[in-house]
Amino acid sequence: MVDVGKNDGQPAQAKPQRRRRDPEARRREVIEAAERVIAARGLEGLTHRSVADEGGLPVASTTYHFATRDDLIRLAFERSVDQFLAYLEHLDEQQPVASTTDLVDRLSDAVVTACTGGDQAHWTVQYELFLAAMRRPALRPVADHTITAGRTSLERYLPPARAYAVSAALSGMILHGLAGTQAPDRATVHAALAELCGTTRT
User: Fold this and answer.
1) What DSSP string runs through 41-88?
2) Confidence class of residue 9 from pLDDT cuts 50, 70 and 90?
3) The CA-based dihedral angle spanning residues 146, 151, 156, 157, taken in that order and rounded to the nearest 10 degrees
4) Rounded (10°) angle between helices 69-89 and 48-55
5) How many alpha carbons lie under 13 Å from residue 106 in its C-beta half-sphere?
6) What is the mean pLDDT of the chain?
7) Rounded-to-integer distance, Cα 118 and Cα 113, Å
8) How many CB atoms lie under 10 A from the CB of residue 92?
9) Which of 14, 50, 84, 172 is the most exposed place for a label (fewest CB within 10 A)?
10) Distance from C-alpha of 158 to C-alpha of 48, rounded to nearest angstrom
11) CA 112 vs CA 19, 133, 162, 169, 199: distances in Å
């Protein structure tokens, strides 16, 4: 009679350990998928299901980390802002801004690149979320943080009043370039920024 309760002297095989998922990595996957949905379909297309489908994730994973749609929107906005702040922080690390004229050149290139280069999706997401802040008061502190950081970064090179004007102008130029049918003309952008920065010659 075989005793099924014994293993005939063979060592018991250990059960494979379940891999623990990194919660922060999963949150990041969800937010990145949310950003892609917003860039492609706008906020009206953002649902837990659409995010799960975009990221190849179970819906339960999106709802576990972000209980409501508003949570998804807020975290996507915060991530977008963090990316923008990192860009500002490292603006002149590789090639320091040598003069106001150099600043105008760099900003002109940045406007054109934002509307025609690989960062279009990022800027589209940021503007979608800025517009959302008009109707969602909870998002306004995040918008304030972005606006203040953009202006403050320009104050390294310009007087406060000019920094404010240039910051607002950059936002408008990029928005026009993304929403319109034509990309911004660099020469026109450069001339406008030069005027605002006080580098035009009479």
Assistant:
1) H-GGG--HHHHHHHHT--HHHHHHH-SSHHHHHHHHHHHHHHHHHHHH
2) low
3) 130
4) 50
5) 17
6) 84
7) 8
8) 16
9) 14
10) 43
11) 45, 25, 21, 13, 20
* Structure tokens that stand for 141 in this block: 């502190």
Is residue 108 scored above 80 in pLDDT? Answer: yes
Distance between CA atoms of residues 121 and 108, nearest Å = 19
In whole angstroms, what separates CA 35 from the centre of its chain? Answer: 8
Take residue 165 and report the two structure tokens written for it.
């004007």
> Cα–Cα distance between 168 and 118 in angstroms, integer?
23
Residue with tokens 């099924």: 4
pLDDT(195) > 90: yes
Residues 131/185, Cβ–Cβ less than 8 Å: no
Torsion of CA 131, 38, 117, 110, to 10 degrees: 30
pLDDT bucket at 202, cuts 50 / 70 / 90: very low
Does residue 104 contact residue 169 with C-beta atoms inside 8 Å? no
